[in-house]
Amino acid sequence: MLKPLGDRIILEVQKEEEQTVGGIVLASNAKEKPQTGKVVAVGAGRVLDNGEKVAPSVKAGDTVIFDKYAGTEVSYENQKYLVVHENDLVAVVE
Description:
Elements: E1 8-13, E2 36-42, E3 46-47, E4 53-54, E5 63-66, E6 72-76, E7 79-85, E8 89-93
Antiparallel strand pairs: 1-2, 1-7, 2-5, 3-4, 5-8, 6-7
């Protein structure tokens, strides 16, 4: 499995099929980029200027909302993931 470094977090993006009121399924290029994902792996945390390490505020298994155009898409073992910095996360869905 992938292991993120520093304050990076690996997400499995949750893509939702979107339908119009009339039942027409929208093409993927007509939809907005998904903004929710499930945390798959978390890095060790961010290092402050004074050398102190700050632990990440999320853990594997959390569902999060992230900035619309954040992160880098990667493929690993035929699965697509999104690697984001912790400060790209907006909220944890409870």
